[in-house]
Design brief:
This protein is α+β, with helices and mostly antiparallel strands. The chain is built from 2 helices and 6 strands; from the N terminus they run E-H-E-E-E-E-H-E. The protein is 20% helix and 37% strand. It is elongated and about 60 Å long.
């Protein structure tokens, strides 16, 4: 089992969710986050005063998938979140040792 964390642009969330749902991947956690990488933020004008926005709004998706589904899931996220511009995001994959569904007690892949 693997945990996939994807940081994407907020306006791409629905596209990514739709692509994953069509592929049968329905369980995910979505969080509003802020951050920056190479994009480095930007300057904005508010009431005549310039200020720097260091941290940009992003969306963080967290999914747990079976080992066999990792490559397909990454491809779906990449294809649906890509704009071709700086700040499209990143995908991180890590190992999951154990999962327990609280309601039923199911464990590991049965609990995904």
């Amino acid at each position: 089992m693997k945990k996939i964390e994807a940081i994407i642009k907020p306006f791409k969330l629905e596209d990514v969710k739709d692509a994953l749902t069509e592929a049968g991947i329905t369980g995910m956690t979505v969080s509003d986050v802020k951050g920056y990488g190479r994009q480095q933020g930007h300057s904005e004008l508010y009431r005549g005063a310039e200020y720097v926005v260091d941290f940009l709004p992003k969306i963080k998706l967290e999914l747990i998938v079976a080992e066999d589904d990792v490559d397909n899931t990454i491809q779906l996220i990449t294809d649906s979140a890509k704009t071709g511009k700086i700040g499209d995001g990143k995908i991180f994959v890590s190992n999951i040792e154990k999962i327990v569904r609280i309601r039923t007690g199911e464990e590991d892949e049965e609990a995904i």
